């Protein structure tokens, strides 16, 4: 990472899920751009290690985003330690329940929605309480292209991410009147432990994942956490102050449709043009 341009100078951020993957890369980028950052994650080992590595501008707090008191405490810690809360990145997540609908239990449903929807709701709620009096703030929620189109992910994950996109929009309309912007990011497939299916995924395993899945992508690669971190940086900073209620797709073209070379010969083959032309033209 090259030296930042202080695009987040004097801003304070909370990054949920900041101990790993997209969140960890965002913590690094935000700190490099001059922000003070609180990592809010259940993963104490990873979160503390990252905070220790990045120095006094970054702290860790153990937080389960499904528990309201944990989220309240995280907001209090950020404002007490660093003086304000300007950026709330509601990013913590997991893959949720897998498998066919007829074997999905109510417990699977509840835990999936608790983390992916209730966790985002609580982050928005308590960020809003801190941000309203100051009349400014940027709230960013990690959704997914799975929330825009079926067939990318398991049932409940897709539906939960669709809910995050809609919650982003409904709340943006309310909080805009208080100077607070609310946006979502919809990543495509990103090389993180979540995508690899295990929280302790090694760099070598991530390399294999990138190689296996990259070829089928429009741009010839899957995403890196930094692809999402840079989108979060833009939405967090003052270069996007006219943007709210937006679901920013960052997916290497996946949501646009099928890669050209996979669209079938009848579309891609070169043929002489036989076009109907009105008489005399
Ligand atoms: N990786 C992808 O392909 C991809 C694609 C689209 C969306 N996303 C979304 O991006 C976000 C980040 O995922 P990632 O890919 O970086 O995965 P990751 O597994 O690397 O990181 C997720 C982090 O969230 C934390 N977390 C999980 N449940 C939590 C809870 N209840 N409270 C606090 N922290 C919790 C984990 O400890 C972990 O540090 C998630 O919301 C995920 O759904 C990922």
Backbone structural class: alpha/beta
CATH superfamily, by name, is NAD(P)-binding Rossmann-like Domain
**Major sheet attributes:** 7 strands, parallel
Radius of gyration, in angstroms, nearest whole number: 20 Å
Count of individual helical segments: 9
Tell me about this structure:
The protein has helices at residues 21-32, 44-54, 68-82, 106-131, 155-175, 193-196, 203-214, 225-236, 265-268; strands at residues 12-16, 36-41, 58-62, 87-90, 137-142, 180-187, 247-250. By secondary structure, the protein is of the alpha/beta class. It has one domain (12-268): NAD(P)-binding Rossmann-like Domain (Rossmann fold), CATH 3.40.50. It has a 7-stranded parallel sheet, sandwiched between helices. The longest helix is centred in the middle third of the chain and has 26 residues, at 106-131. The model has no long low-confidence stretch (mean pLDDT 96). Bound molecules: nicotinamide-adenine-dinucleotide (NAD). Nicotinamide-adenine-dinucleotide (NAD) binds at residues 16-17, 19-23, 41-43, 63-66, 91-94, 115, 119, 142, 144, 187, 189-190, 192-195, 199.
Concise structural overview:
This protein has 281 residues and is of the alpha/beta class. It has helices at residues 21-32, 44-54, 68-82, 106-131, 155-175, 193-196, 203-214, 225-236, 265-268; strands at 12-16, 36-41, 58-62, 87-90, 137-142, 180-187, 247-250. It has one domain: NAD(P)-binding Rossmann-like Domain (Rossmann fold, 3-Layer(aba) Sandwich), CATH 3.40.50.
Write the layout of secondary structure elements.
Blueprint: E1 12-16, H1 21-32, E2 36-41, H2 44-54, E3 58-62, H3 68-82, E4 87-90, H4 106-131, E5 137-142, H5 155-175, E6 180-187, H6 193-196, H7 203-214, H8 225-236, E7 247-250, H9 265-268
Parallel strand pairs: 1-2, 1-4, 2-3, 4-5, 5-6, 6-7
Helix pairs in contact: 1-8, 3-4, 4-5
The site of nicotinamide-adenine-dinucleotide has 30 residues, from α1, α4 and α6.
């Amino acid at each position: 990472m090259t030296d930042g341009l202080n695009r987040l100078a004097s801003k304070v951020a909370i990054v949920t899920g900041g101990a790993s993957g997209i969140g960890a890369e965002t913590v690094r980028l935000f700190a490099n751009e001059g922000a003070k950052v609180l990592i809010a994650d259940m993963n104490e080992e990873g979160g503390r290690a990252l905070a220790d590595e990045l120095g006094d501008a970054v702290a860790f707090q153990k937080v389960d985003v499904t528990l309201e008191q944990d989220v309240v405490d995280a907001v209090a810690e950020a404002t007490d330690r660093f003086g304000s809360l300007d950026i709330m990145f509601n990013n913590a997540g997991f893959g949720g329940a897998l498998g066919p609908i007829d074997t999905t239990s109510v417990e699977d449903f509840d835990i999936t929605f608790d983390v992916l929807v209730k966790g985002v709701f609580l982050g928005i709620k308590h960020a809003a309480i801190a941000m309203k009096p100051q009349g400014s703030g940027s709230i960013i929620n990690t959704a997914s292209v799975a929330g825009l189109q079926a067939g990318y992910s398991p049932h409940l994950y897709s539906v939960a991410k669709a809910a995050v996109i809609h919650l982003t929009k409904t709340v943006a309309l309310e909080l805009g009147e208080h100077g607070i912007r609310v946006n979502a990011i919809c990543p495509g497939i990103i090389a993180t432990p979540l995508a690899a299916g295990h929280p302790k995924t090694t760099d070598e395993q991530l390399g294999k994942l990138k190689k296996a899945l990259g070829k089928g992508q429009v741009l010839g690669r899957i995403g890196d956490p930094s692809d999402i971190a840079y989108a979060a940086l833009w939405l967090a900073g003052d270069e996007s102050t006219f943007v709210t209620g937006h679901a920013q797709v960052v997916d290497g073209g996946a949501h646009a449709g099928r890669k050209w070379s996979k669209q079938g010969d009848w579309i891609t083959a070169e043929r002489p043009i036989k076009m109907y032309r009105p008489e005399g033209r």
